């Protein structure tokens, strides 16, 4: 039997070694889940919702333990692990409040004895290949609405967050979701590949663009419903009328929170030339104030890099930026000691000839580019193959909205950043993905519409 080693990225120490699934185990679980799905769909929505409400209560009861596990296996500072769990509660509340209305039968037309209705039925068996950076958010964005709408789920958490994934499944089972209706698939990419070989009615993936493309290619011949939440190179523009200090403090957090390991982290900043120097001074001061250290310390803000190979990616972006004339203001190197550590890094005098401004960094590194005006900023913001989020800082809401309307992004922000709401759809343009989660649209995405044509029988002739 193969095993999966779980290592603490902050120390390099082995946390646990657990049994991993192989292709045969994945196939057996998929078969059991397929058999269980109709029974789960037949359970009244009120009872499915009650199980999810118990799951929510279990998260609250075990929050400290769950947060500690998350911090140990991904290196996320403990305060941010608690934030993620507390943030999940609001998302669950939204799904519980909105599912019944979102999937209710819809009468759409009636005339001359003919009626038309739309019914929302479950997809069936949903595969979920999830990510490690926000495993509670991205995992439960799929799992919770999928279960509420009557689907069964084959859940493959990232190999870097498997213990957290196991907690999610354990608590769902303890809350009354049948064991076969939500099953954990433990392992690395080979397990994900084995999942793609099963009979699925939907596949929801969060991760890199390269892996998303491979998944799309594998499933295309079978026409499986696909949702891909991929990467971003998220830009923000600070206009001449913005508050430089407030924008710098906000964007420093947007760039460095979760050690920059978020698909919606701010990764490119464009600042009007009139504010550039004041903004940069405050931005650097804010970043230098972030505490780096033991992720289990509640005061820590910058934690470990979860995946060791990402350190080389960050180093390569630093070297490329330096070689092409960027000015390094702070950081730019690995930190000493065991584990995966990289110093918060800030560059100015950057350009789009640099990898730092074109390719996803997924780490505590940012480039700040001076611009002459709004049109230049919008052109640079759109000079990307991605389109996840974008923002504008300005005192003029009308002008900010006009600029954001011209930017290709699934989510846009005025005077804020790095924010996700359960009430709004989460989607991207270009290489940032396909489909959506969250909002009432994200609930309906786990169903398929069934069209009903209903005609009263013609009365018999007298």
Descriptors:
seven-stranded mixed beta sheet; 18 strands; six-stranded mixed beta sheet; alpha/beta; 462 residues
3D structure, described in words:
The chain is α/β, with parallel strands linked by helices and about 450 residues long. Helix content is about 40%, strand content about 20%. The strands form four sheets. It has a seven-stranded mixed β-sheet with strand order 12-13-14-11-10-15-16, sandwiched between helices. Strand 1 and strand 2 form a beta hairpin. Helix 1 packs across helix 7 and helix 2 runs antiparallel to helix 4. The longest helix has 26 residues. The protein is globular and about 85 Å long. The model has no long low-confidence stretch (mean pLDDT about 95).
């Amino acid at each position: 039997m193969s095993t999966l080693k779980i290592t603490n990225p902050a120390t390099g120490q082995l946390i646990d070694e657990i049994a991993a699934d192989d292709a045969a185990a994945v196939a057996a679980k998929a078969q059991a889940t397929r058999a269980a799905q109709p029974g789960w769909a037949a359970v009244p929505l009120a009872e499915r919702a009650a199980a999810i409400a118990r799951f929510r209560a279990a998260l609250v009861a075990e929050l400290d333990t769950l947060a500690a596990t998350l911090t140990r296996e991904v290196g996320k500072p403990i305060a941010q692990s608690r934030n993620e769990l507390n943030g999940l509660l609001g998302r669950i509340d939204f799904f519980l409040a909105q599912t019944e209305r979102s999937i209710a039968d819809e009468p759409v037309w009636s005339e001359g004895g003919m009626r038309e209705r739309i019914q929302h039925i479950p997809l069936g068996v949903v595969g979920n290949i999830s990510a490690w950076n926000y495993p509670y958010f991205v995992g439960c964005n799929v799992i919770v609405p999928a279960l509420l709408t009557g689907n069964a789920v084959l859940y493959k958490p990232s190999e870097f967050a498997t213990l957290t994934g196991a907690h999610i499944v354990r608590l769902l089972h303890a809350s009354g979701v049948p064991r076969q209706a939500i099953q954990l698939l433990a392992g690395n990419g080979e397990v994900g590949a084995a999942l793609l070989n099963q009979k699925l009615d939907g596949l929801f993936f969060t991760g890199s663009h390269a892996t998303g493309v491979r998944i799309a290619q594998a499933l295309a011949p079978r026409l499986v419903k696909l949702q891909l939440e991929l990467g971003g190179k998220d830009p923000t523009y600070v206009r001449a009328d913005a508050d430089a200090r407030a924008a710098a403090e906000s964007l420093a957090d947007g760039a460095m929170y979760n050690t920059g390991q978020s698909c919606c982290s701010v990764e490119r900043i464009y600042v009007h030339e009139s504010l550039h120097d004041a903004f940069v001074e405050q931005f650097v001061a804010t970043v230098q104030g972030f505490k780096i250290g033991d992720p289990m310390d509640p005061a820590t803000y910058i934690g470990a890099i979860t995946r060791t190979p990402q350190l080389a990616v960050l180093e390569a972006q630093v070297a490329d930026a330096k070689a092409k004339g960027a000015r390094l203001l702070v950081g730019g190197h690995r930190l000493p000691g065991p584990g995966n550590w990289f110093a918060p890094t800030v560059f100015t005098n950057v350009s789009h000839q640099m990898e730092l401004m074109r390719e996803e960094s997924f780490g505590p590194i940012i480039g700040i580019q001076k611009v002459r005006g709004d049109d230049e900023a919008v052109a640079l913001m759109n000079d990307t193959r991605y389109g996840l989020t974008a923002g504008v800082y300005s005192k003029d809401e009308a002008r900010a909205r006009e600029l954001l309307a011209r930017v290709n992004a699934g989510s846009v922000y005025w005077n804020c950043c790095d924010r996700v709401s359960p009430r709004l759809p989460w989607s991207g343009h270009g290489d940032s993905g396909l489909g959506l989660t969250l909002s009432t649209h994200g609930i309906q995405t786990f169903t398929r519409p069934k069209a009903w044509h209903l005609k009263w029988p013609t009365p018999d002739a007298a």
